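Entry 12.
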Amino acid sequence: MKSVILRSFIVMTLLTTSFSLLAQNDSSTKNRKFKVYLNASYNNYIIDESSYIADVTNYYKYEGNNLNIGSLSFALEFYKSKKVSHEIEFMPISFSQEKCKESIIINEEIGPINGNRTSNLYSTARYQLNYHILKEKSIRPYIGLSPQLFYKFTKNEPFYLQSPINLHHEFSLLFAIIPGFDIKLNEKLDLNINIPITFLETTIEKSKINTPYRSYEDISNSELTGTFFPQKYNFRIGVSYLF
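Predicted 3D structure (tokens):
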């Protein structure tokens, strides 16, 4: 796992250095752009789990996918030269909360038996280094290199004291190559379309169960994983304003 992360950082360093060398021969400009992106993503996932009950090991496999369309993000792009630019993108913090209660009816009397409240907090930020192939054309293709940081926090709170509180933190660092192009609309506005292609994902997950009935070793868990070419597909379309 450590060797995978080390190799990924070496590759990122070499690519970043190459882009910087390409920029040294260009005359500098002072162009800046404010961007608004509409994001779409599709993700396939597989989860393998096992349990040991009565001297028998049971294996479980969960497969699924999720589609997300319509998330907005905002970015600032700074041109270091005519062909090289730096871009910083932020997605506003997203918060959601769901409540669920389960009751039982006995002799026309309703009694609660289960229920919980699940809260989710999510955000992401991206740095992107772009090399613009044709800077002065109406349609300007470019290639980008990007590390992107994701953070997700989930809290599951039961409505009854006999159930524990579950806390889950997830940090992900994704490395992507981003082909795209700008379409000039007028002197100030551009239409931007790009497709981030993720080639490495590293994830740190930390879970904790708040209950006084188990030891610390039993209620806390951390895991570090790395995946080459994860099944994550992204698409961004945006409008940029030159200022």
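Annotation: The radius of gyration is 23 Å. DSSP finds two helices and ten strands in the chain.
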